[in-house]
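Q&A log
Question type: sequence-to-structure
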Amino acid sequence: MAENRSEICLEQCFHPETVEKVSGSMASREDLLAVAELFKALGDGSRMSILNALLCSELCVCDLTMILKMTQSAVSHQLRVLRGAKIVKSRKEGKNVYYSLDDPHIAMLIETGFEHVREERGGRCVTSCKAQTVRSQS
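Response status: OK
Response body:
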C-alpha cells in the first residue's frame, strides 16, 4: 500500500528541545485514558441529543422521552451510560428522577463542540439556551 506522502516528513529530522519540552508536558497515561472514555461516552447521537436537552434545563425521564421521541427504556439506557461517565447527575423527587449536567465543564464541552461544527460549516453558533441550570446549581 502506498503511503500518503503529504502526511509524513519527507526528510528525517529531530528537534531535541521541542521533543523534550512536549515529552515533559504530556498528560499521564491514566488521564489520557480517562479523557478518551469521556469522549467515547459523548460519541453517540442519542446521548448528544439528551445532553443538548439537558443543556437547556434539568429534565425528568418522562420529559426527555417526549422531547426526543424515544422510548423510556432507550432514554434510561443512555442516561445510565452518561451517569456512569459522570456526565450527568440525577436527583429523585417523589416517584420521578430528574437529570442535569454534572458540572459546568460538561456544558462547556458541549457548547464548544457545537461552536466547532457550526464554524466548520460556516454558520454562526447560536445557542438558544446556555447551561444556566448547571451554572446556577454549582
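Response note: Strands lie at 59-60, 88-93, 96-101.
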